[in-house]
Amino acid sequence: MDSLPDVLAAHDYPGRGVLWCTTGDGTALGAYFLTGRSPASQARTLRRTAQDTLVVAASDTREHDHLRHYVAARQSRQWLVFGNGEQVSTVADRLDAGRTPLLALDGLDYEPDPPIFTPRLTVVADGDGRAWFGAARRSAGGRTTTDRLTLHVSELPPGEAVLMTTYRSSGQHPATGAPFTETRTTAEDADALLDELWSALPPRLRIAAAVFTPGHLAGAGIRQAARVGD
C-alpha cells in the first residue's frame, strides 16, 4: 500500500475526504478535510459548535449554501458520523432513531452540482474500532440513478487507513474519486496524523482538516488555512 502523503500527492485536487485509521499508538481515529479551488469554496471555516458538532460554514456573511455549509461531524449516541454534506445530519438522525449503520447510510444521493456531480461521502464509526463507509456516486456512464457503495472496516492494525475522496485529478478537470483507497500512515497519534494529513494536501487549495476520536468529538484537533486578509 502507498503512504497517505503519496496517495494525496498523486492528485492535484482531491476535493473533500474522509479517513479512518489506526495510528501507531493503537488509537482508532477519523479525519475529515476540505480543499477548494474557487473563492467561494475557500471562504469557509471548520469550527466546533456548542453542541459538540463540527460545522463547515462561511467565513463571511453570504447566505447559506447547503452544498458548501453543513454539519461535517456529529456524535450520535454511541455513533460518530462524519462526511462532506448535509447527509451527515440525516444519517445521525437515523441512527438516533435506532437504524443500523447500513440502513442509516442507505438511500443517499450524490450532490446536484453538474457537471461534476460530487459524491456524498459518509462514515459511521463506533467506539470499538469499527467504521462503515457510505458513498453515493453518479454512474460513469449515462445513468442518472445513484450508485451506492457501503464498506465495513474493522480491526485495522496500527499504521493502516482507508481513504475516500470526492475527486481525483492530475490536471484542470476533476473526476470522481476512486471508490476507496487502502493506505498507510506513519502517524503515532492524533496530533501526528493531523500534521501528516495537512502537509499532504495541496497548500494553495487546502481549507481545513480535523482529526477526532469516537466519543470525544469535542476534543477534535482542527487545522485551518490562513487566507490573505484574514
UniProtKB/TrEMBL annotation:
GO terms assigned for molecular function: IMP cyclohydrolase activity
Domain of life where this protein originates: Bacteria
Coiled coil start-end: none
Single biological process term from Gene Ontology: IMP biosynthetic process
Protein's recorded name: Inosine monophosphate cyclohydrolase-like domain-containing protein
TM annotation in the entry: none
Natural source organism: Streptomyces griseorubiginosus
Residue span(s) of domain Inosine monophosphate cyclohydrolase-like: 13-210
